[in-house]
Amino acid sequence: MSRSGEAGQKGPKVRSDCWVGVELKESGGLKIELKSRVEGMFGERIMAQIEAGCAALGVEHAVIQVEDQGALPFTLAARLETAVLRAGHKAKGEYLLEMKEYCLYTSNASRLRRSRLYLPGNEPKFYINAGLHDPDGLILDLEDSVAPAEKDAARCLVRNALRAVNFYGAERMVRINQGERGLEDLDWIIPHNTHLVLIPKVETTGQVTAVAERIAAIQKEHGLSEPVHLMPIVESALGAWRAFEIAAASPNVVGLAIGLEDYTADIGAQRTLEGTESFWARAQVLNGAKAAGVQPIDTVFSDVTDMDGLRDSVLEAKSLGFVGKGCIHPRQIAVVHDAFAPQDAEIEKAKRIVLAFEKADAQGLGVVSLGSKMIDAPVVKRAQTTIQIALLVGKLVEDWREEDSGVKPGARLKGKYIEG
Amino acid sequence: MTKLIHNLVQNAAGRMVPAQINGQEAIPYQGLGNYRPTGRKAAPPIRSCVDYPQDGDKTVGTIKEALVNAGLRDGMTISSHHHLRNGDFVANAVFAAAAELGVKDLRWVPSASFPVHEPQIAHLESGVIHHIEGSMNGPLGDYCTRGKMRGMAVLRSHGGRYQAIQDGEVHVDIAVIAAPTADPFGNATGDRGPTACGLLGFALADSEYADHVIAVTDNLVPFPCIPWQIQGNNVDQVVVMDSIGDASKIVSGTTQVTKSPDRLLIAELTARFCDEAGIIQDGFSFQAGAGGTALSFALFLRDMMRERGIKARFVRGGSTQYLVDMLEEGLTEYILDGQTFDLEGVRSMRENPGHQNTSPFTSYNWHGKGNFASMLDAVVLGATEVDVNFNANVVTHSDGRLLHGIGGWQNCLASKCTILPIPSFRDRIPVLVDEVTTLCGPGELIDVIVTERGIAINPLRHDLLERLRGSSLPIRTIEEIKGEVEDICGGPAAKPELGEKVVAAIKWVDGTVIDCVRQVGD
Question: Do residues A229 and A170 both lie within one domain?
Answer without folding.
Answer: yes
